[in-house]
Amino acid sequence: MIKNKKILIVGGACSGKDYLATRLAELHGFTFGVFSTSRPPRKNEINGEHYHFLTDKEFNTQSKEMVVLAHWREWGYGLKEIDWITDSVFIFTPAYLDQLSKEE
Fold first, then answer.
1. SS3 annotation, the chain
2. Residue 95 covered by a domain
3. What is the chain's pLDDT, residue by residue, as a tens digit (104 residues)?
4. 103: in domain
5. Which domain holds residue 102?
6. Residues 6+ apart with CB under 8 A from 44
């Protein structure tokens, strides 16, 4: 594996983004970047696997540590810098892509 390289998967709903990320991790050992959110978990979602589920207060405090950040409805979503540094495969929206600096 090439050190410090990132794979960003961007696509529409139901286009296979999660499947591709999972397969890259299973077959090639890539690590999957888990986003943080202030929304409550849905049934069968696992904290730390699907998202890092945070309270509103935790999310607002930790938002300073995020490389990309978005809000949808009343919830926040973001990727912590530590996850960006340590992981290699990410599912991004086009809005997240616009937030990355050219150096990243």
1. CCCCCCEEEECCCCCCHHHHHHHHHHHHCCCECCCEECCCCCCCCCECCCEEECCHHHHHHHHHHEEEEEEECCEEEEEEHHHHHHCCEEEECHHHHHHCCCCC
2. yes
3. 445 688 899 987 788 888 998 888 888 888 889 999 999 999 999 999 899 999 999 999 999 999 999 998 999 999 999 999 999 999 888 878 888 865 45
4. yes
5. 49-104
6. none
